[in-house]
Each structure stands twice: as structure tokens, then as C-alpha cells.
Amino acid sequence: MSGLRSLPSVDALLQTAQAADWIREYGRPLTVQVIRSELDRARASYPQADKIPDKAELMARIDASLQVWTASSLQPVINASGVILQTNLGRAPLSRAAIQAMQQVALGYSNLEYDLQAGRRGSRLIHAEQLLCRLSGAEAALVVNNNAAAVLLVLTALARRRSVVIARSQLVEIGGGFRVPDVMKQSGARLLEVGTTNRVHRSDYEDALQEKPALFLRAHRSNFRLIGFTSEPELAELAAVAHQAGLPLVDDLGSGSLLDTARFGLGHEPMVQESLAAGADCVCFSGDKLLGGPQAGIILGRAELVTRLKKHPLARAIRADKLCLAALSATLLHYLKDEAEREVPVWRMIAIPPEEVYSRAEQWAAILGVGEVVPGESTVGGGSLPGETLPTYLLAFRMRNPNRFLTRLRQASPPIIARLENDLAIFDPRTVMPEQDAALLEAIRQNLSEVKSTHKEKAPI
Ligand SMILES: *Cc1c(COP(=O)(O)O)cnc(C)c1O
User: Where are the domains of the chain?
Assistant: First the structure.
């Protein structure tokens, strides 16, 4: 007897109570499509009759397939890695106020480009501009899609078909394909490298003036450190050379902090205000690195330059959307109200004192009844403070196969990203949101017992 005949028809399946549930949840077209394709798949098992599913198995396959098709591939994860600005994990988590601002603007209409007083078209550019200028001391501001776009716009608008002077030691690759020389090429500007890999002097910049460059560019060495026999002129010195020749100085700060990281026991990350005060005519940085806001590229500087940028056709192609502007304004307000350290998650995580991390790790260990608390290091990441770390405490598990344990945790719901260090599976409380504790501990508990039961592990310490 052919097993094929035992397969129900599409119509018969659609009559079932289960199908009614599917249609309610997933809609009719998708349900019908998935039923068809699972039936086709079942028929394709012929002539191996034993592989043809019975009805229950078939229904289970359809159900699983519908779930897979409708699951979002972008989902929240728990970051227990201790890297505060992890680009792969979406960089900065937003403040509550920023999320609320986005929600309000997303739910309905807004005055994004509407001047309420005049009753006519306005500009989207005004929304964050005033706040940015007030906080930084800049004359003008422009917000675009991300900092890579900001640098591209600045170079395209100000240096196309002309040369840009930059130190060899700053021709950096940031990751994710952002390389300063490539962005330069894309903008149509010519690269005019000066100095050597480790040293560049004021005179190198002065000599470069013979080539009649369009501008000087300084790029932050976001992800590595130059140590040993090195030197570089101060920004103010560079500005003086540039200004004497009537050229602008552009500073790509990368992370661009509004607060002083040195206050938290870290090195000093270049600050936006300092760069402007030192004479940079145009400063670019990311919205979702140390600023702790949404993905954005922020350009600050002299009004005359920023106006040229705003008018360039490329500006329209890389403009920021309303959700970004809403979240960015709300984030900037935290700085204006001097509450960034409390309200902006990135700064809150940086500011947690080691003893507080310690008691949280101890609490985790106590709840789980396993694991040991060991001292370790968190990093800021996100193209800032290369090589700098924050002292922290970690919950650590010693086990025969920590990789297997970490792999299982990545498949948990929500997925958990932890670290492997010295053969220990480690969890840093610093980057775990307090409201995620329960989910984290439950997943650890479950997977510890599974790893143990399948592999006869020594009990973790
Ligand atoms: C991170 C970074 C960029 C790119 O910024 P995105 O916002 O990721 O586009 C550019 N320049 C420097 C120096 C950076 O650190």
C-alpha cells in the first residue's frame, strides 16, 4: 500500500482546528503555502514509504515551519561579554527617554519637516542642532546616517578632486570595512600622506601645503595604540598651520565623547568640546558609540562649512530618519540636564564601581549555587579607548568543555553572549541589564545541568 495515499489533501488539512489557529496567527496565504510545501516535501520521500510522515508528524512539521518563517532574525541578546560598546551586538543600548521619544514619533505623525508657527514646510535638521551646538559650543550641526557617511560627506563636499593631508599613522581601518584611504577614494579626494608610521611633525604638514590641499584631516586611532618612539603635533598646532594657509581642519573623532572618560579611571578619550576648542573647523563622530544614542553621524563645526555640507546632494541620500532624530535629541537632553551618567546606559555601565559589580556577581553565584567570582576586566570598545580596561568581577565556571556551554547559551532564548578566558566560561555583570538577570541565570542553570548530564562533567566550582 503506498504511503502516499495516507497523506491528507491541502483542503483536508485546512479544515482542521489546528489550521484555523494557524490562519489566525499567521494569515491564510502563508499557512496555505507552508502546508503545500510540507506536503510536497512529504511526497518527495516516496518510494521510501517509511519516511512518509503520519498526520501528526506532518502537522508538527507545518507548525515548526510556520514558526521559523515568522521568527524575527533580529532579536535581543543578553550581553555578558563585558564589552560595553560591542558593534556586533548593536553598540549602545538606548535610555528609557530615548525609547519613549522614538515611540511617540513612530506611533503617529510629527512635525519632522513642518514649521508649526509658520504653518509650512520646515527643516528636519533643526531638531537636534540646537542641542548639539549648546552642548559642544559649535556654531552649527548636521546629523546623518552614521559617522562613515559623515566623513564621506565632509570629504566629498569639501575636498573632491583635491588633496587631503593626513598622517600615515592615522590611515586606519576601523572594522566593518571602514578604511580611511578607501573613504577618501570614494569621495574623490586625493590622499596626501605625511610623516612616517610612527612619527609626524608640524613641518611635514607645512611642507604638504605646497600641494595646495583642500584640508587637513585628523582621524582618531580608534582601535589600536601607537606606543614607543612616536610623536604627533597637538590638534591646536595643526589648526594653526591649517588656518595660516586658509584651510579647514577636519577631525574624525570616531567615538567622540561629551564626558571625560578619565573621571572613571580610564584613559582620556578625545572630547568633542576639546576638539572644537582646539580649533577643529569640523568634527565628526558616531551617535551610537560613547554618546550612547542611536546610530547616527554627527557633524559639528563652523556655520559656513556645515551650510555647504547641508546643501550638498549627498546629504539628502544619507540623512537621518525621524526615529534617529527623536532618540538623539532625548539622549542629548540627558547631557544638558547633567544626568547622562545615570540615564544613558553606556555611561551607567562605565560608572558602576567594582564593588557593585562584585556584589552582583556574588549574588548570581549565590542564586545558582555554583561558579566562582574572580576579578577581571571589562572594556569600553566601539572605537574608543583602545587597550584601556575597567576593573570588574566575573562569574566564572570551570568545566571540561566551556565552548560547548557557551555555544548552547548562544542558542538560548534570548541568546546569551559570554566570554571564554583561560578555559573559563565567564560572565561580566557590568553589561547585563538588571532586568535580564532572571533570564540569564535560568539559562545558565539549565545549560549547566545539560552540559553536565551529557558529558559527565566534573561539577563546576
Ligand atoms: C567608528 C568610526 C567611524 C565609523 O563610524 P560609524 O558610525 O560606525 O559609521 C569612522 N571613523 C572613526 C575614527 C571611527 O572610530
Answer: 2-70, 78-86+346-455, 94-343
DSSP string, 347-364: HHHHH--HHHHHHHHHHH
Mutational pocket test of ligand 1: of 154, 172, 174, the residue with most ligand atoms within 8 Å of the beta carbon: 174
CB 159 within 8 A of CB 281: no
H or E element: which one contains 340?
A: helix 340-343
Asked if the 94-343 domain carries CATH number 2.40.10.220, the reply is no
pLDDT for the residue numbered 223: 82
Q: How far is the CA of 162 from the centre of ligand 1 (A)?
A: 23
Answer whether 335's CB lies under 8 Å from 353's CB. Answer: no
Beta bridge partners of 396: 372, 426
| The pLDDT value given to residue 456 | 45
* H helix runs in 160-282, sequence order: 180-187, 202-208, 235-244, 272-277
Q: Report residues of the chain scoring pLDDT below 50.
A: 1, 455-459
- For 38, phi then psi, to 5°, come to -70, -35
> Is the beta carbon of 252 within 6 A of some atom in ligand 1?
yes
pLDDT for the residue numbered 267: 92
Q: Where are the beta strands (DSSP E) in 184-239?
A: 190-194, 215-219
Is residue 425 within a helix (H) or strand (E), and if so which, with residue range?
strand 424-427
Rounded to 5°, the CA angle 27-76-439 comes to 105
CA distances from 155 to 297, 308, 349, 378 (A): 14, 12, 35, 35
- pLDDT for 458: 45
Q: Is 357 in the pocket of ligand 1 (CB under 6 A)?
A: no
Q: How many whole angstroms separate alpha carbon 51 and alpha carbon 53?
A: 6
Helix (H, G, I), strand (E, B) or coil at 284: strand
Which residue from 35, 222, 253, 231 is spatially nearest to 154, judged by alpha carbons?
253
Q: Is the CB of 218 under 6 A from ligand 1?
A: no
Q: What's the grid cell of residue 100?
A: 519613549
As assigned by CATH, the class of the 78-86+346-455 domain is alpha beta
pLDDT for the residue numbered 457: 44
CA torsion through residues 18, 20, 25, 26, sign = positive
**pLDDT on residue 187:** 95
User: 212: alpha, beta or left, given left = phi > 0 and alpha = psi -120 to 50?
Assistant: left
Q: Model pTM?
A: 0.92
pLDDT at 455: 45
Give the H or E element holding residue 416: strand 416-417
